[in-house]
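DEPOSITED CHAIN:
***
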Amino acid sequence: MKTKNKIIATIMAALLLVTVGATVTACQAADDVAYGMNYSYVSVSINPKVDFVVDENGLVVDVIPMNEDAEILLAGKIDQFIGLTPEAAVELFTQMAVDAGYIDIEAELSEVNVEVASDESDETANQIAERIRTRVNNYFANNGIFGRVNIGTMEEYLEQIEAYGLDADALSMAQIKAIVTAMTLMPDLDPRELADMTVGDIIKLIHDETGDTNLKLQNAEFKEAKQALYNLKYGEITVLRAQIREMEQQRLTMQDGEEKTAMEAELATLRSQLRERVEAYQAEVAALREQYRQQAQSAYSEKAATRQQRMNQFQDKLENMKQRIGQNFDKVREAIENMQQNRQGNGNQG
């Protein structure tokens, strides 16, 4: 890399990694998101992986679940994150992960990895990172959980960008993160084309691909079934259209008379057949879409039920922990804060 030291410095200023025993990255956008400029990307890693997209007003506008655990955790809950500050969104996600048992509340140490990349400036990214670290560390301390936030680098993303043949020096950190996310979800894309797009355009591309439920399996199956239907039905429609066009050209050169009148009648019949076949094809596509939408919604509901089962399973464990802390809460909180401060003093390397 041309200016590796410069990039590493930028990374350290731009990113915050918060690790809670696994990896969390999230992304699912609200349908009415206006994709503009100056985005920040917040990736959270706890095993559920989620990306939060933050707009220039400092509010979450997009939530992208990156794995099945995140889909389970966020099923039916995406709207709760839209409009939150990034620190509030990460705290809520961490709380949900604790409630669902993704974070071991009895562990000697739990870590949350959070990466912050800004399309605006390194200072903006650093400010977001510090607010997240303070908020999440306070959440752990206030709830008697030995958890901490670590600040790390984006070396992994830079290596992937280089593997794509792109110049990391020519891209903002938010572009780098958005490109890697898009390529992870849609590996058939051309990274060079993504490099020429704004972060907002890449986010819209990701949102359009993942759909309302982000159930990629169902989306892929629908596209495959739709293509099979197209191959089966649309060939005859294409042939019929070509036949109509050819006859229309012939009619233009014909003199008025019985032959032309007969051709016009035949054309009317063919146009009627074409319209019926197109409408029938569109109806079959609509039925197919509804079929897979229902399947996706069913799977989505199953994920929500799975999350609730996990929460029910760990509820007793949470209550028992709170009771054990009891009158020793102040001592426990002090121990947690000392652990967090010691980690920060050692450089916050995750």
